[in-house]
């Protein structure tokens, strides 16, 4: 059996002085990081928390959060990072549902979400990491709280063995090594950012933990100044960065030539955006597909994107990915259906949510809730969410088809499409667009009519200054419905 963090301990033994964390005021080497992690592990045990106890991570600064996560996992406790922006009521419900034993906080005691709050700064500053190392293996290492864009948030646990396999499944494909540097631009409470940071340490690279600037232009300057080579972002972040590059005017080549691995996941990335990223940010675009429950299950690097620009990649080794119909039968290439995954790195169930577990975790594999199809070459393509399919008088409409047409209009910068209940048609197609130029709604209707079958043409189109997105860049469709006072949310 192996601990999820065994790579960090290995580098601490073999390369103790190599940089692990780069902070604004100091650099912490691998030996120092291992000692700091051990201090947290020792402190949690001193508070009477046994291995296997779920510990909510409710710290605010990136450095404190990362130390709390790593130290919790090292000693066999189960780290559950929380997004503090969710608010007290949501945090209380999550802590109760998952059976959290305590919370790690900064600069305070008392309670948090009804659990004993332990001040991280009160724990020992260092200790013997090898003495604290938990065997790991089939024991739980962490719990990730899903973003809740398609319903209530869920708590997805994963073991040490599963997390180690998820971490290392991409390291070779991304060609990461000790000379690389990663800067998290998403809060470490989110799996995409946290897992990439631990992946960086696992290969012996360094994680840059600097406060993020307020503008995308300043962020890109920070990336260049800190010689960051690896990023993990969502389409929402890429969109903001592309806008910043456009505002700066034409330059000589990509704006981030030093970022040789720009890994993007979390939502569908249109082919035109991918081309812009490779042309204006960095040619080193990597697209991955997966979930908090499964880890990454498919990946496409630059060479694969040259062959299939809109793919999310081919399935990773050891992972079976199928597209199936409503009865669970595999579909041939080119036919859209639900994506089903089987592998040993998939979580077994959600914590405290039997109904959601029954929907997703089935005897035939994990049902991702996404729709897509394979091509003849084995490339996987996403088409949307199962719940997003719009039933227009018995015809299935996939939002991505309509969104692609709207985005192809020169005056449209972004678009999202969803269904609204309507007595005559079951549902009608509704679109919200963000404009980059002046265009009338009637002209957008006409544009769509010339390119889409009648059932897929939006019946209603709304203009917004921007689309509401969560921390990971996903469009919050329920928030859009609320703002528009539309039924069906």
UniProtKB/TrEMBL annotation:
For molecular function, the Gene Ontology terms on record are:
medium-chain fatty acid-CoA ligase activity
InterPro entries recorded: AMP-bd_C (IPR025110), AMP-bd_C_sf (IPR045851), AMP-binding_CS (IPR020845), AMP-dep_synth/lig_dom (IPR000873), ANL_N_sf (IPR042099)
One Pfam annotation reads AMP-binding
Q: Where is the AMP-binding enzyme C-terminal domain?
A: 401-474
Biological processes per GO annotation: fatty acid metabolic process
Q: Quote the PROSITE patterns the UniProt record gives.
A: AMP_BINDING
Q: Which domain of life is it from?
A: Bacteria
Q: Which residues form the AMP-dependent synthetase/ligase domain?
A: 10-351
Spell out the protein name for this chain.
Answer: Long-chain acyl-CoA synthetase
